[in-house]
Write a structure and sequence with these properties.
This protein is an alpha+beta fold. The protein has a single domain, classed as Multidrug-efflux Transporter Regulator, Chain: A, Domain 2 (Orthogonal Bundle). It has a three-stranded antiparallel β-sheet. A hairpin with a 6-residue loop joins strand 2 and strand 3. Helix 1 packs across helix 2. It is elongated and about 70 Å long. It starts with 6 loop residues before the first strand and ends in a 19-residue tail after the last helix.
Length: about 80
């Protein structure tokens, strides 16, 4: 039997992921994250394994070293 304490609320999930509540709502609407609904109040619920899967799929941002303009006069 599934217990509701095995799920995170939207607030808990947003804190776990380090994003805003609206970001998580948008991701759910866009299908980027699996959302479940509480059977009584229809609140959004998230499974930790789904959140971990999302985090595992993150790619590091790699940017080339920026070229800094010289501060002195050109010789």
């Amino acid at each position: 039997m599934t217990r509701l304490n095995e799920y995170m609320t939207i607030k808990e999930a947003a804190e776990y992921l380090g994003v805003a509540l609206n970001t998580l709502r948008n991701w759910g609407r866009e299908g980027k994250i699996h959302e479940l609904r509480h059977p009584v109040n229809n609140y959004r619920l998230y499974q930790r394994q789904d959140l971990d899967t999302l985090l595992d799929g993150l790619q590091p941002i790699t940017t080339p070293n920026p070229v800094r303009p010289s501060r002195g006069r050109a010789k």
